[in-house]
Amino acid sequence: MQGFFTSAAHLRPHWHFSTVFLSPVFWVQIHKDSVIRDLKNSMRELTKDCEAGIQQTKQEGEKQRKEERKASQARCARLQQDIQELGAQLNTLVLEHRASELALRKVNGRRAPEPEV
Predict the structure, then answer these.
(1) How far apart (Å, rounded) are the C-alpha atoms in residues 109 and 112?
(2) Which of 8, 26, 74, 100 is the right S-S partner for 22, CB 3.0 to 4.6 Å?
(3) DSSP for 28-94, written as a single string
(4) Residue 99 and residue 93 in contact, taking contact as beta carbons nearer than 8 Å
(5) Residues of 16-44 as b/e, b for ≥16 C-beta within 10 angstroms?
(6) Would you list the domain boundaries of the chain?
(7) Is 72 exposed, middle or buried (0-12, 13-18, 19+ CB in 10 A)?
(8) CA distance 16 to 14
(9) Tell me: the pLDDT tens digits for 69-101?
């Protein structure tokens, strides 16, 4: 394999000896940069989580609002039906009362006035 290794350059490391033994100030700066980068990433993740939470809360609120509206409409429909039924009962009772009043007047011998309609 002659010619494969033309020099001893491939045996030398690609870094220089002085880069391994850097000053403490440099390591502190690297640590600060790392902390800042981690904090920024944490803030991004927190923002995403908050936005997702807000969106979920909005969706749940909208769903609850629709359910409450549907229930309210059902209650209104039942009440309207009750009103109609009670109105019909009232009319029936008024007619029965007028008929019984007319019958009583006839029994008492008085002339009964015509019922008002």
Answers:
(1) 9
(2) 26
(3) HHHHHHHHHHHHHHHHHHHHHHHHHHHHHHHHHHHHHHHHHHHHHHHHHHHHHHHHHHHHHHHHHHH
(4) no
(5) eeeeeeeeeeeeeeeeeeeeeeeeeeeee
(6) 23-107
(7) exposed
(8) 7
(9) 999 999 999 999 999 999 999 999 999 999 999
Tokens 């008002």 correspond to 116
Rounded to the nearest 5°, which phi and psi values hold at 22?
Answer: -85, 165
Q: Letter for the amino acid at 114?
A: E
Q: Is the dihedral of CA 72, 77, 80, 81 positive or negative?
A: negative
Neighbours of 100 (CB within 10 A): 10
From the number of C-beta atoms within 10 Å of its C-beta (0-12, 13-18, 19+), residue 102 rates as middle
**Which residue in this structure is represented by tokens 């020099």?**
7
Q: What is the pTM of this model?
A: 0.50
